[in-house]
């Protein structure tokens, strides 16, 4: 059905009021929607979809075992409802159509002069920022599903058939991950170059929630994302990895936490952060920090035998006043022996209604550069410091922690990256699938709890409901694809592998 790929702007216009209640837009005239309204909507719903329950809290956050489920625990055992896939798919393609509409309005001769009015910024930079955000949405789609329908501003590859209109293409081909990642890098390079050219100007103004219209910061974001995505291709296409990484570094990437790409939510309804809506608004306490993650932060994992001061930021104390992680992967019956008061829920920073969701941060950039420089000690330490500073750790505690760090190598750098990326669960999952680190995550038949329950000594082991015993490699395609776009769906399955969670994606093989 068309709604899988073609956003009905009417529905988006109706949602714009969630971002700006003062807008008065004729729902029968989509072309009258200002690009400033479209960018606000696109940024909010991109972040909502990437960090919401389906793509994050009830899937990737569990897969990487930073979060455990207190109740309704089946997702932590890899029973992922097909409805999650449908919601992620339709949500992100809606965002993509919204961003594409900005590009269309800035290229159509009938509208391109109108949309630059009132300080919205020049056509070229509106297009460039939209390309950056489209790249982010496509990264999420391809890392979750694999091959997906894809659209490019800068390439006419016949395999790139998503978002096509006039006439509408409701059965687009699925582009390969290899082509998608290669093109995302080119999109980011070209967009970053444009934004650098006009770095002294602003685009979208206050409607840009992430950077308040600062083109120079958007250029840094584009180039820093290139580091992340080029590193995906480190073993697949090392020359492309090297060339994009070097070019991005030369043109300018994040150099401090002031550069971080943050979408900050509001304390007022209906614009609260995703975790707040999933818990406080829904009056639920389904999620706790996992025992493997809390033990790591306590310094009780032999790979990192030093207490991490971020524990007090990431977690809340339980009813006994201590930090206690919840065993990961319990069955429903086993989970009934643990209450929310017994374990550490996420801390007050992440639990706040106005939490700022990070799309990319400086510490990750330093960890990526450390890897690029053969696991550089200096960049490793800078990455750790940046994360600690971002979470508000006191300078003396930062110095003490850094002084006890194990030396830089692949395992130690990636373990620190794993800790620093807390709340950015999709990227943690992607990095795990790429590298296999951290290598202490629980797998099938591992002991997840051993102790006393109601006076009895018990031992629980991890028993996944689906998959091959390891951490899922992807999510299922939406079921509707088998009806709406069967031929292209089947071609994707033939090229990629069965539509199951254990099929490894090309970029992570």
CATH class: Mainly Alpha
Report the sheet-strand fraction: 5-15%
Structural class: mainly alpha
Termini separation (Å)? Answer: 32 Å
Computed over alpha carbons, the radius of gyration is 22 Å
Global shape: globular
Range of helix content: 40-55%
In sequence order, what are the helices and strands, one letter per element?
A: HHHHEHHHHHEHEHHHHEHHHHHEEHH
What is the subunit arrangement here?
A: single chain
Number of E-state strands: 6
Brief overview:
By secondary structure, the chain is mainly α. It is built from 21 helices and 6 strands. It has helices at 9-16, 35-51, 53-57, 60-63, 82-107, 123-145, 177-197, 215-232, 238-251, 274-281, 291-298, 311-314, 332-335, 348-351, 362-372, 377-390, 395-403, 410-420, 425-435, 481-484, 486-496, and strands at 67-69, 261-264, 287-289, 356-360, 447-453, 456-461.
């Amino acid at each position: 059905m068309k709604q899988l790929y073609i956003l009905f702007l009417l529905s988006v216009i109706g949602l714009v009021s969630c971002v700006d209640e003062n807008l008065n837009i004729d729902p029968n005239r989509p072309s009258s929607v200002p690009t400033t309204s479209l960018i606000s909507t696109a940024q909010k719903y991109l972040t909502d979809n990437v960090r919401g329950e389906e793509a994050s809290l009830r899937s990737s956050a569990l897969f990487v075992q930073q979060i455990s489920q207190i109740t309704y625990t089946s997702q932590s055992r890899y029973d992922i409802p097909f409805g999650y896939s449908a919601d992620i798919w339709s949500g992100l393609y809606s965002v993509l159509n919204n961003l594409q509409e900005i590009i269309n309005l800035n290229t159509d001769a009938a509208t391109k002069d109108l949309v630059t009015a009132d300080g919205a910024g020049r056509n070229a930079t509106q297009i460039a920022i939209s390309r950056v955000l489209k790249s982010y949405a496509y990264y999420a789609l391809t890392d979750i599903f694999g091959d997906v329908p894809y659209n490019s501003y800068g390439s006419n590859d016949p395999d790139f058939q998503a978002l096509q209109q006039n006439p509408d293409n409701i059965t687009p081909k699925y582009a390969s991950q290899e082509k998608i990642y290669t093109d995302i890098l080119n999109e980011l390079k070209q967009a970053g170059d444009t934004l650098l050219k006009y770095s002294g100007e602003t685009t979208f103004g206050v409607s840009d929630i992430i950077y308040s219209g600062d083109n120079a910061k958007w250029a840094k974001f584009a180039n820093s994302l290139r580091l992340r995505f080029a590193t995906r291709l480190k073993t697949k296409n090392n020359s492309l990895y090297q060339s994009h990484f070097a070019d991005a570094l030369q043109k300018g990437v994040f150099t401090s936490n002031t550069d971080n790409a943050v979408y900050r939510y509001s304390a007022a309804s209906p614009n609260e952060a995703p975790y707040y809506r999933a818990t406080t608004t829904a009056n639920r306490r389904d999620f706790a920090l996992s025992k493997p993650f809390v033990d790591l932060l306590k310094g009780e994992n032999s790979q990192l035998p030093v207490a991490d001061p971020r524990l007090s930021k990431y977690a809340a104390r339980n009813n006994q006043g201590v930090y206690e992680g919840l065993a990961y992967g319990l069955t429903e019956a086993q989970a009934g022996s643990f209450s929310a008061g017994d374990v550490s829920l996420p801390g007050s920073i992440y639990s706040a209604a106005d939490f700022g969701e990070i799309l990319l941060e400086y510490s990750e950039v330093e960890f990526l550069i450390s890897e690029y420089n053969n696991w550089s000690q200096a960049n490793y330490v800078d990455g750790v410091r940046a994360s600690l500073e971002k979470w508000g750790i006191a300078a003396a505690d930062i110095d003490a922690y850094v002084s006890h760090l194990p030396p830089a190598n692949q395992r130690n750098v990636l373990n620190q990256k794993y800790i620093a990326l807390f709340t950015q669960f999709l990227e943690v999952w992607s990095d795990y699938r790429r590298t296999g680190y951290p290598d202490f995550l629980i797998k099938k038949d591992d002991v997840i709890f051993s102790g006393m329950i109601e006076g009895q000594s018990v031992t629980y082991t991890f028993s996944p409901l689906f998959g091959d015993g390891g951490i899922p490699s992807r999510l299922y395609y939406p079921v509707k694809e088998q009806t709406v776009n069967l031929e292209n769906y089947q071609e994707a399955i033939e090229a990629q592998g069965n539509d199951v969670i254990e099929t490894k994606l090309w970029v992570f093989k």
